[in-house]
Amino acid sequence: MKAITYSAYGTPGTLTLVDVPQPKVGPGEVLVRVKAAGVNPVDWKLAAGYLDPILEVRHPVIPGWDVAGVVESVGPDTFDFAVGDEVYGYVRKEWVELGTYAELVSAPVRTLARKPRELTFEQAAGLPLAGLTAYQSLTRAGLKAGETVLIHSAAGGTGSFGVQIAVALGLRVIGTAGAHNHDYLRSLGAEPVLYGEGLADRVRELAPEGVDAGLDFYGDGVIETLQSLVKERDRVVSIADYEAAAKGAHQLWVRPDTADLTFLAELADAGSLTVNVEHALPLAEAARAWELSAAGRTRGKIVLTV
Q1: pLDDT in tens, 134-143
Q2: Cα first-last separation, the chain
Q3: Dist. CA 196–CA 210, nearest whole Å
Q4: What pLDDT score does 36 carry?
Q5: Neighbours of 20 (CB within 10 A)
Q6: Same structural domain for residues 119 and 143?
Q7: Closest CA to 75 of 122, 125, 124, 23
Q8: Same domain, 54 and 122
Q9: What is the SS3 assignment for 30?
């Protein structure tokens, strides 16, 4: 089968499209014929070696964790899905090696759910990691209907999912973004505020008594600001500040979860969660996709089509 690989830590230029053996499918796994693979910043950060201290990496690596496709075969004693089922998921395994930038990927069933009916394969491939991150951040903060959440970097890939999910859960959402993204946030149901100096004062104008929780999806030293705005100091969650725990906040690392993926699919099928695919590139252009991701100017998702 065809797959994108890299044999050592480096830049997007190290990616190559090669022929590799078809993956084996063990108990509790299915083989997925990949229709689209989502591109996330963690993909190129892994390839650059940034996460080597905490993740086991075995070269050569097929990158990618997000996938949408069709079940090609099932492993022994695997009854969760059948051949022909359309699935999507966050296929993070025990170590980094056999990812989703390929024609086929073996996926533990705990990492998959049935694909949202109302989303294309490209849209579905853009949802798992960022959508799970947003949803699990909201649940980690213990938010419930009627409360107010402040989302930092609300117009980004994870933030925009966070806004939509929060609104669907009955939350009031205040979201930080540049002025050019304020209308976009309003369209998602958030009240936008400009990030940067004076952020706390601008939030207090909207919520004089404070917010119930704060979510940091960017990591530019904003945790202390969020803690000054929440009613209870421990209701701040960050996905980007590796010193969050030391600062008294929750540091979240997203986990594969079939139930959570199913919930996101239900929101999408109900029309409460949309996925904006800004770039859909062929598998062979993975390096270009990484360059677009690293530039940080893409509002929607980047996916590779297979």
Answers
A1: 999 999 999 9
A2: 11
A3: 18
A4: 98
A5: 16
A6: no
A7: 23
A8: yes
A9: strand
